[in-house]
Amino acid sequence: MFTGIAIHSVYVLDQEEALAFYVDTLGLEVTSDVDMGFMRWLTVAVPGQPERRILLEVPGPPSMSEETAAQVRSLVTRGALGTAAILTTDDCRATYAALAAKGVEFTEKPTEQPYGIDCALRDPFGNHLRITQEVPVRDITDDDLRRWGGA
Amino acid sequence: MFTPAEDENRRLLRARDAIDREYSAPLDVPSLAAVAYMSPAHFARRFRAVFGETPYRYLQRRRIERACALLRDTSEPVTDVARTVGYDSLGTFSRTFTAVVGRSPTRYRQDARPVPAPVCFTKAWTRPSSFGEASPAARP
């Protein structure tokens, strides 16, 4: 029935600052930047993957009341709106080093996990992003079973 | 770009991220308050107001959550797990762990199963909190 995920929205507090971060710093590219009068339709994507876009949306009227927008802004800056995106890379440690040198605010250094190597960062507004170098999930081993008391 | 309240949120979030990142270090309120550019007393009050628990409680439960992950995902001895997450005393670690989780570290390890989700979700959803324990379904 479905063929993919085309766009998901991330609330940002300022689209110019969002552009500076997501494009100039992270290296994503602009796929749409259209002033539609009622809103600025601004999407970015990983280079070479224009079919999978992130809409950088500013909360505010008339989409929502000023009061609701203030609540959303508060949640963004408290880091309470979940994970904005999990980006994949072929080399997590090199990506971390390159972005850290640009002053990106990392919340986790690259760490080996069962599913790969990943690290985490925040955008200027408080949104959480992860960068993952994926590996195939490993099978459960006899050592796991012994440790769990099942063998 | 930020209102004063949002700017305060953002600075407090940086301090909370520092706890999440450096939980094994001997963190204290003055050093965390410095991250947020606040006085220690104001920081402690505002952290609790914004995140619903004190910085110390947040740190303690982050350490316990990370201990759970190590017990679940590695074969490290409990003594090493305690030290890795910031406890010098095995006795203090075991008492705190049992009080928060409801089981001893050894028993927890026996019962635990791997969590097939990126670590950020595990950290967010399995950290016991003072305003609501992880749901039974989410608890590994």
From TrEMBL, chain A:
InterPro entries: Glyas_Bleomycin-R_OHBP_Dase (IPR029068), Glyas_Fos-R_dOase_dom (IPR004360), VOC_core (IPR037523). Residues 4-134 form the VOC domain. It comes from the Bacteria. Coiled coil: none annotated. Transmembrane segments: none annotated. This is Glyoxalase.
